[in-house]
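Field reference: sequence -> structure
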Amino acid sequence: MRLPVRRPSRQPGFTLLELVLVILIISILGIAAIDRLLEYRVDAERAMVRTVVGNLRSALGMEVAKRVARDRIRTINNLENSNPFALLAQPPENYIGEIEDESRVVENGVWYFDTGTSALVYRIRFADYFRSPLPGPARVRYRIELVLANNNRDNRTTQVTGLNLVPLENYQWEFPK
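Structure field:
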């Protein structure tokens, strides 16, 4: 009588080739996800800058309205070149205060008021996609300026009608296509 020949059974699992292919595919997907995540960080920073600037512009508008309502319209021009964060009830967490020497700021991702130039400055944290004509670290600078109107339509008489927070240099955020 012949005994049946036992063939070695194949154990379930991955072969080395299958394992390498799975690791390769996961690595490629991980790299793509990380690249996309970096773009989202830059987009979030850009949105944060726009939000803070919008909040400051709203605070300027409310301060002008308050001074007009209290018949102190002539004091509006005192706010030109001042620190706009002084108008907020609570500045953002990344506001480090008033700085006399901008070269002493080493941290990125912070707001500060440069008292030497009367400029509100934000140091860009993720500067890879940011373009500005300023030399040195990537940053945006803003200043409070008066909004003037010529009510008499002559070139000599002007009246302060409001305040605006304006960028001192053109800048833009560029994203790869």
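Note: The mean pLDDT is 86.
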